[in-house]
Design goal:
It contains 2 helices and 13 strands; from the N terminus they run αββββββββββαβββ. It is mainly β and about 230 residues long.
Length: about 230
Amino acid sequence: MAIGVAAILLMALLAPVTHGVTVYNTGAGKLYTLKVVKDVTLERSTTNFNNLIYLLVSKHPDYPNKRSLVQFENLPTACPLSHIKSAKMYLYYKYAHKASFHSIYKTPFIPRYMYTHLVKKYWVESQATSTKRYSNQFWSAPWLALDGRDAELEPQDWNPVTIYPLRPEGFVEFDVTSAIRKWRSGVPNYGLVIRAFNELQPGRDIRFYSNRFSQPSKHASVRVLCKA
């Protein structure tokens, strides 16, 4: 009996919740807004950065590379797989960071081409680092192996979201329809990893607000259009 209870509790902890999912009737289908349930920046092997108000992406000169993980609520069962028309992830872009003691030539503001990949392994927000998923469980490669082991090889959308120089702050949109359809079909929801195609090219790192930021209206979300 104790084993059964423990198993139930573990499953409850691993599964993203669906409480509080908001629904808006567009007149041409229902729009579900899925809130972020956990996110974290991956930079160093020995440090968890769950305390940051930003999600960081790409390499800043003199610092390690950065990718970020983000996971959302599950889509309610009221929207079956066959009714999913599209799904968009929104991240609030704040700015591209340059260390104050660097020149603009050492750390230039270059375009960053952003992709998202479906994550295939469980991770803990308060423990994940560039090399560890949690505790003593490691990623197959630093910052996740994008070869089907830690995350899918193919990005969610081959058209990158470009953060170009002096892009105004605000929400940017990523197409994550494939991920939402896979999660609805039974693939475990472990979220997405965000990275820049040119992440190792010297330049400013990109900063999105994380769920640690004080204004929930600027947290990440996914909006799913569901139409019979």
